[in-house]
Amino acid sequence: MNRYYYAELEPDARGFRTFLEVEVIDNKIVNVTLDAKNEEDNPYGLYKTTSSKYNEEMYAESGTRYADAVENLENQIIQGKTTLDRVKGARFLSQDANELLSKIRKMIEEDEQLSN
Q1: Which of the residues 36, 43, 78, 87 could staple to 69 if both were Cys, CB 3.0 to 4.6 A apart?
Q2: What is the pTM assigned to this prediction?
Q3: Which strand (E) or helix (H) includes residue 33?
């Protein structure tokens, strides 16, 4: 049975809400989407991962592109890590991803308890 879970954080200073969406099959996370979304008018566009402006600015400041950091964190989640390693140059994103993963894991546990 496929189950989907979604969690998001409060908007950051630029109005972006970091979110995590996962698909679970047979109690295993098989698909992950981590990103930040801002539906208001802003110079970065709708999603941080697809914003060349945001990725260029982040790379200039930290040496890491947002999209690359997201890919690293998503892979860690699919590998089954319960606590994600911090991605160099993406400390806040790494913290946000861990917070969101914790929320998602609680939802999964609650569902498992209800189905037993």
Answers
A1: 87
A2: 0.92
A3: strand 28-37
